[in-house]
Design brief:
It is a single chain. By secondary structure, the protein is mainly α. The chain is about 80% helix and about 0% strand. It contains 16 helices and no strands. Helix 6 packs antiparallel against helix 7, helix 7 packs antiparallel against helix 12 and helix 13 crosses helix 15.
Length: about 400
């Protein structure tokens, strides 16, 4: 390789790294809007005492909106320039945030929160965009880099919202997000390239084609079911942790469970490493290890019902396992149908969040019926289900990579 070729390659590599960091920032800043309202519920109750019994509708509306946005907006990345979609969604979410910040009733706040959730799916444009920009040999690392930004956004959102609300009031949280998003929009205009649409299907056919993709692609079905089962185990744990910490011998409040979220940084930091491992060893090997880690985590949890240290160790193992599996699964599915990455990602993520909702429900049921050990057994069963789906498809692995 000549010196000029080497310089071009280095410059290209630096440019890709810069774009991936920008996409990671976009994903993190966007997805954080889903979680800002969770530490603000008591502040909402004080502002709208006449509607105190409906305070839970605010975070519920946001989560519902995110699911709707994934289904209805994320597939548009195959049909239109993703850069333009990101900018349009930034404008839309800023308008929704202004309505939330100025809401004079809980109903208006809930409706604004629904819109915020729908438009926060900007993150689901950033991840497929990274897969498009990166060469195939670096796709896993690219996806992992952007996912690490998304995970850090989730991790830091509650902490940031609590800090801003404490000193400036809950309305300032939404106002601060508008400022952050507008600053990000300027950088997007200056730095992010346009993407090339890969489909000319009308919108209704674009949505309908997702069913056909799920039927056609065995690898997509496997990744979606495996991911859903692992995320169910993940959501189950976090749904019962606060209940465990509130009782003997801990007698800790909900803030303690929030502090456990900081430990989740391990999962965010592990995301790029998981992507690199998927590039080198193949996604299936990483997913196998991930399933084992999640299963081990629930064994640790079952033995740590009276130990903070044990719970911390289990959280680290659980987060690394779940995030490594997600990165590897997404790396796999983006290679299945390059011209349909947004739709493939939508199928995967909708299944993923359905699994999360199921895990939360099962966690609540098993906790009340069987306590902490019962919840841990249920989480272990979800991990074993993921392993069964994963290994059941092993004889078809070669076909799955191309079908």
């Amino acid at each position: 390789m000549s010196s000029s070729d080497a310089a071009t390659t280095a410059e290209s590599g630096q440019s890709l790294r810069g774009l991936l960091l920008l996409l990671a920032t976009i994903a993190g800043v966007a997805v954080a809007n889903i979680y800002y309202n969770q530490p603000l519920l008591d502040a909402f109750r004080q502002s709208f005492p006449q509607s105190a019994q409906w305070i839970g509708a605010v975070p519920a509306s946001t989560q519902l909106g995110y699911a709707v946005g994934m289904l209805l907006l994320a597939p548009l990345g195959d049909r239109f320039d993703r850069r333009r979609l990101i900018l349009l969604q930034i404008v839309g979410i800023c308008i929704a945030l202004v309505f939330a910040a100025s809401a004079q009733s809980l109903a208006v706040l809930a409706i604004a929160s629904l819109a915020i959730g729908i438009l926060a799916t900007i993150a689901q444009q950033a991840v497929p965009f990274a897969a498009e920009l990166a060469p195939p040999a670096q796709r896993g690392h690219a996806v992992g880099t952007v996912m690490s930004g998304l995970l850090l956004g989730i991790l830091l959102a509650r902490t940031a919202a609590g800090f801003v609300a404490q000193y400036f009031g809950w309305r300032s949280v939404f106002a601060a997000s508008v400022v952050a998003l507008l600053a990000m929009a300027v950088v997007v205009i200056m730095r992010l390239p346009r993407s090339k649409p890969t489909s000319t299907l009308p919108y209704t056919q674009l949505l309908g084609s997702m069913w056909h993709l799920a039927v056609e692609l065995r690898g997509l079905r496997e990744a979606s079911m495996t991911g859903a089962a692992l995320f169910a185990a993940f959501s189950l744990f976090w749904s019962v942790l606060t209940l465990l910490l509130a009782g003997a011998p801990f007698h800790l409040g909900p803030q303690a469970a929030g502090l456990f979220g900081i430990v989740g940084a391990a999962g965010a930091l592990a995301a790029p490493l998981a992507g690199k491992s998927a590039d080198r060893r193949g996604p299936r090997a990483v997913i196998t290890l991930s399933v084992a880690l999640v299963a081990i985590a629930f064994v640790v949890f079952a033995l740590s019902g009276r130990s903070i240290a044990g719970l911390v160790i289990g959280v680290i193992v659980l987060d690394i396992g779940v995030q490594a599996a997600q990165i590897s699964n997404q790396s796999r599915i983006y290679a299945l149908k390059p011209e349909a990455r947004s739709r493939v990602n939508t199928v995967f993520m909708v299944c993923y969040f359905i699994g999360g909702a199921l895990g939360s429900a099962v966690g609540a049921i098993t906790w009340h019926a069987f306590g902490w050990i019962g919840a841990c057994v249920a989480g272990l069963l979800f991990a074993l289900l993921a392993g069964w789906v994963h290994w059941r498809q092993r004889p078809h692995a070669a076909a799955a990579a191309t079908s």
